[in-house]
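During the no-cost extension, the postdoctoral fellow (Dr. R.K.) reprocessed legacy sequence entries with the updated structure-token encoder. One reprocessed record is reproduced below for audit purposes.
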Amino acid sequence: MSKQLHKNFTDGQVKSLLKSYLDKKIKISYILQMLRIKRSRFFELLAKYRKDPDSFSIQYERRTINRKIDPDIEKNIVKELKMEKDLIKAKDVPIKYYNYSYIKDLLEQKYNQKVFLPTIIDRAKRNNFYFLKPKRKAHDREVLTNYPGELIQHDSSHHRFAPYAEKWYLITSIDDYSRLILYAVLVERETTWEHILALEAVLLKYGFPLAYYVDSHSIFRFVQGRDSFWRNHYRLTDEANPQWKQVLDDCRVKVTYALSPQAKGKIERPYRWIQDRLVRTCYRENIRDIKKGQLILNNLLQRYNYRIVHSTTEEIPYIRFQRAIREKRTLFREFRIMPPFLSSKDIFCLRVERMVDSYRKVSINNLELKVPGAPLHERIQLRIVPDKESGVSEVRFWHEGNFLGSQKVKNSELNLLHP
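Re-encoded structure tokens follow.
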């Protein structure tokens, strides 16, 4: 307590007590109890007061000089903080605050310089690179899970992730229990097909989860009045089935919808971590190409999934996920192709129904396709698997659980440039 005397009492208060003691107005026991010091410390103060009452002070005097850091480290801290400030000032970029933890990691990775976080914050304050973040609002609804695969949160975010490029979409899926990010891909255009590809990547690798958790985006959910051009008073919300949801229906995976943006808080926090560092790194490395942006994103995913201790679970996501799997505490079911389907292409695809005419042909976007063996004047289902790289789609024909064959068609002829 004596070392903190200057924090609990003023010079005047202590001088008054010492003077009262010398004037025999109070006893030493009272002063020891009030100041919470020992007798030896009291007599040190008393001797100091007797020697020079006017200049007496209990203020702490540092006997050692503050430890200085290497000039090169100091230079790099200020340099990176200056880049942070320029980024914050940039328009149309989702960065509004300094990230001192990012600077700390950057110094270690880029310059091989280890610096404590308080040192960086101290230099930020000294050089006018500091302001407090506003407190975030608490989430009004949190989904609690006990097993991997119990709930997969899926979402997309649209930002200028690379300040020198156009805005990109970040599509992400995260296991709610472990906070393991199962999927994260940058795309230039958000489409139903991109979200189906995300389903394919997750389900083929991890199996069928119990449920997916999404917002009410039109890709995930039909809402009457919002998603129909001509209002149909006989069709209610959820009676129209979006392509993305049809994939999960075939896999017997439930879909739950967030009631508000705040309800999706668990995926928003990892988003913030990844988004923040992705933007800062793309800015520093002058990234303009989405493929290079994806490489940076992949490195961030490695760090988040395998090295960072999550603030809520207090565990590294991958370790938490794998331990539950080893203990057989998982709700992921092994992926298998459900009858009558023959291939994963029959599941992860776009679907459309068409009537077979008298020549056993169907028409889609003014393109006629002949389907040998198709029943005349009946509706058959076309399950379409586009390939962006080759520019060719595989169209698989089905009727009442029977596979009728497949054909290869150019995406441009199917008008599936943006499926």
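The CA atoms of residues 32 and 39 lie 7 Å apart. Residues 344-414 form one domain. The remaining legacy entries will be reprocessed before the final report is submitted.
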